[in-house]
Amino acid sequence: MTANKTPVRKKPTVYIVDDDDGMRRALSVLMSTVGYNAVSFERPAEFLQKLDPNQPGCLVLDVRMPEMSGLEVQQQLNRSGSMLPVILMTGHGDIPMAVQAMKDGAFDFLQKPFRDQDLLDRINGALKQDAENRETVERHADLKRRSESLTPREREVMALVVDGRANKVIAIDLGLSERTVEIHRANVMEKMQARSVAHLVKMHLTLNGETLGNG
What we know:
The chain has helices at residues 21-33, 44-50, 70-79, 95-103, 116-148, 152-162, 167-174, 178-191, 197-207, and strands at residues 13-17, 37-41, 57-62, 86-90, 108-111. By secondary structure, the protein is an alpha/beta fold. A five-stranded parallel β-sheet has the order 2-1-3-4-5, sandwiched between helices. It starts with 12 loop residues before the first strand and ends in an 8-residue tail after the last helix.
């Protein structure tokens, strides 16, 4: 069996969207001093047009902008299925909007003026969350690929194995010999890369909408 290749991880990008030129420049310099790759945009529409959903990172987003508010940007990201964590920058009067964006799934918000370290702490947390989210999605996609490699008969056997049926019972249910069931079962365990029946049960639950845990 060919060994799985470890995917090359992309360096995360910190997106900055703010119509204030001075703020954009200051944040870009801050990101570069700590080694982050930063891309800034004056217009939210340009950011939304150029955003690559496969690029890991996070978004530092001003709430109040003339063309489109931060809340509207957040809502558009939600509609597109984006998993990019959003950190909102708010003035005092914008806090209700920021709270609404948090309810819509934003990662956090900072009230202006804020300390550089407070922003960096939130960016670190957002990038960690993004990496965890993407790892979960990739594990689920890999699990789906394994499942799709099974034959229809192997899927039937897997469903009965995770239901706790013994080989003899599965053989009767499917009208097969016990030896044939053993072969199908071994193929299922190999293709799914299951370490045990308990591991197979966990993967089966994940494929049917349960949360994927470690392993």
